[in-house]
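User: Run a structure prediction on this.
Assistant: Running it now.
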Amino acid sequence: MVQRLAQLWLGLLLVMLASACANDPPPAPPAPVAGASETVRSSYVLAPGDRLRITVFSEDRLSGEFGVTTTGQISFPLIGNLDVAGKTLADVQSMIRTRLADGYVNDPRVTAEFVTFRPFFVLGEVARPGQFPYADGLTLRQAIASAGGFTYRAKRDRVFIQLPGDTKEYTVDLEAESNRLVKPGEIIRVGERFF
């Protein structure tokens, strides 16, 4: 009887391990290089949750801070709602400059800069899972620390990351890539260990 129970237990354990291995997402794409935040900023595309400061020189009433809405727009004085989701800061500057030059302002000079990026998320086996404000140069280890660190059940050698706009999770080896830079909007999930 004891031998039969041991065999059942071992069989169940093997099924669980095989299932866990079969469900592992593919490896993560290459991580951004540490210190590359200026490159990340120049290629960064806007999405809901981002906040911008737009300045139109010599036009104080047109300058200010604008948040990207859940529909991916900002509401700009005189020209109305602008679709900015998926666009870079340079695209937004150009769009506003073009629209203002079309009968509103002579030779508009427009600059746009980030005030805040959209938050990132840490889920799973951490002390305080949730949404956290993004900071430039944030590493994977720092992101997990901002969520209170690992719980005692956490699998500490790897995490799962869902990139903004993607539906898949990627496996990241935490020991090899603990200094990987986190991007705004990423979802980091810490899995549970089996033993």
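The mean pLDDT is 82.
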